[in-house]
Amino acid sequence: MRQTKTEILSYCILWKSRLAWLAAKGPDGASLGYDVQMRKRIEGVAQDWIGAGETVALTKVVDGLSAGTFYDVRVRAWA
Question: Which residues of 36-62 are buried (b: 16+ CB within 10 A; e: fewer)?
Fold first, then answer.
């Protein structure tokens, strides 16, 4: 009987999520932009904040997320 070797290929699926928030009020009705930042929590320990991008919309799609990982997200408005 001929034996065959079974190879298991592992791969990473890049997860993404759509974030959404309420509009902030700018000074004197100024148009606002939003700075989106996020950080991972590894074994409950918060890591450094990283920029996820800037937008003038009230939503942002972030990708490259790891399955089973908790994230903190903050959105700051700027005029």
Answer: bebbeeeeeeeeeeeebeeeeeeebeb
Which runs of E-coded beta strand occur in 1-79?
15-20, 33-42, 45-46, 50-55, 59-65, 70-78
pTM for this entry = 0.77
- Separation between Cα atoms, residue 79 and residue 35, nearest integer Å: 11
Report the residue count for the chain: 79
- Cα–Cα distance measured from residue 8 to residue 13, given in angstroms and rounded to the nearest whole number: 16
CB 77 within 8 A of CB 27: no
Taking only the tens place, the pLDDT of each residue in 53-79 is 999 999 999 998 988 899 999 999 998
Cβ atoms of residues 32 and 8 within 8 Å: no
